[in-house]
């Protein structure tokens, strides 16, 4: 089986690549990782990995990765929320136009490859009920969410027409992300856990009462793989679903950090409100009923403490370098 | 005030143009009518009308119509449902790309013109409740509906960013359309009234029990104009709304025809199911609660008989040429 992953050097892309390579039953022969940068050495050194480095808005580059014999494409590359808000044209080019280019390349091949598209709960916004259900209209209040909602519509129509076999997943906010902060408005949700664990301070730009809808990298990778593995019939008439997550306030996140790493570590979080970030984050819903996704067997994290422990295991070698 | 109407020679476009020209309070100085064909003589002869004939996918043509001093654009041009289903690329080019081109031309001018976008209830589909409400997710099961749903998202984001002052309206099926059948899957809904009234037979490709959600040309034109006239604040956080309509079965439509024109006229309807049309039409919802639109003062027809009488008045000079 041959696979392409856009955003393949990103933190979800690389974990997904490893999970796919490790699945012997799947029998992965080849994965093209498309990204602006090279993937980590362990992936580069794997003979089955082909690193295709460049801009996802470059059609030729995408055509190198998505070939007539490509069985599946995981389209994760995106300009994230605050980034797409700051540079509208870049957001449209990457989040909308490149998505359409990928769909059109796949369509030209005439091989109906599976395409798993990373959408986002940023596609929700505006007047929302207390608890968001599966039939909620998408009325995003940020360009990133608009572009993701459009991607979902395209994935659906290309699937209905038989051009591709598409599946779109609305990711909750993913915590704890490894690495450095990015341009997502939600990036603080990882920073306030990740940085204190490593002895550094982190700024929280929203109030402790702010509720969020979260999922861990482990669960996101498992669910993204599951979206691929499910038969087409499991999707019914709509190829997009809000993934399970869990609801927690930012204050409770820091309390979980304290429970695991102690008060000195938790005290490294500084509370400093940023109206630009608040405006985006407060527009995102934090409570969902994910009836469809639950019925389809998608996984859900058991809460914040296991998520932090998994981060320490996966990214910090099982120790807390910043512990007092 | 200066206006552009795409699809301006179409039956809604020309009625809208006349309504705008007749509104003295509005003080219309100029209307560019963009269409593949020239508008009717009464409009061509009006010194305030500028007929711009050509393809709406031609950016230069659109730029002729949408100028730095254009106050409002009514974007009605579209490849309709069965047409967009038969020619996917044409649907994408006209319904998606041309819409985006219009938004980008307006954005470049930096003048935040009003843009009223004709969306459609074909944007609904899939698993729907018995009665569709304002917060229903759009999961269209046809390419036309997908492209209209994308247009709504773009109208919203360009408005939120301050590039335009957009308003999108989900039209019910419009009956009774004058003229000839078109490529809309719903075209029969006008044919079964229009042709018998003029002494001709008409084929109904769906069962008499098929319920539809309808609005008359008069009401559509009034509501489209109202969408322009309403202040931006009236729209709240989302610049798209399902317009009021009325629910009626196809059998009841023919019964209304019989009540007005007699049984011989009604007998000119032949019932001959067409699975391709049925597949599209049965996917459209027929019952709505249009709470937002009602609160915004959009109008609703009083039922089928007044709609037929208005057609006879407006299009047949007040007489039934096909009466026995």
Distance between the termini of chain A: 48 Å
Which structural category fits the helices and strands of chain A?
Answer: alpha/beta
CATH superfamily of the domain at 2-172 and 217-242 in chain A: NAD(P)-binding Rossmann-like Domain
Which strand-content bin applies to the residues of chain A? 15-25%
What would you say the CATH architecture of the domain at 2-172 and 217-242 in chain A is? 3-Layer(aba) Sandwich
- The unreliable regions of chain A are none
For the sheet with most strands of chain A, the description reads: 7 strands, parallel
Task: Provide the helix percentage of chain A.
Answer: 40-55%
What this model shows, in words?
Two copies of one chain form a homodimer. The first copy, chain A, is of the alpha/beta class and 324 residues long. In chain A, helix 1 (11-22) crosses helix 8, helix 5 (88-109) packs parallel to helix 6 and helix 7 runs parallel beside helix 9. Chain A has a domain at 2-172 and 217-242: Rossmann fold, CATH 3.40.50.720. A seven-stranded parallel sheet of chain A has the order 3-2-1-4-5-6-10, sandwiched between helices. In chain A, strands 7-9-11 form a three-stranded mixed sheet. Helices cover 41% and strands 17% of the residues of chain A. At the A-B interface, helix 6 of A face helix 6 of B.
Question: What is this structure, in a nutshell?
Answer:
Chain A is α/β, with parallel strands linked by helices and 324 residues long. Helix content of chain A is 41%, strand content 17%.
Write the topology of this structure:
The structure is a homodimer of 324-residue chains.
Chain A: E1 2-6, H1 11-22, E2 30-35, H2 41-44, E3 49-53, H3 59-65, E4 72-75, H4 81-86, H5 88-109, E5 114-120, H6 143-160, E6 165-171, E7 173-174, H7 188-197, E8 202-204, E9 211-215, H8 217-229, E10 240-242, E11 246-249, H9 250-261, H10 263-266, E12 269-271, H11 275-281, H12 291-295, H13 304-315
Parallel strand pairs in A: 1-2, 1-4, 2-3, 4-5, 5-6, 6-10, 7-9, 8-12
Antiparallel strand pairs in A: 9-11
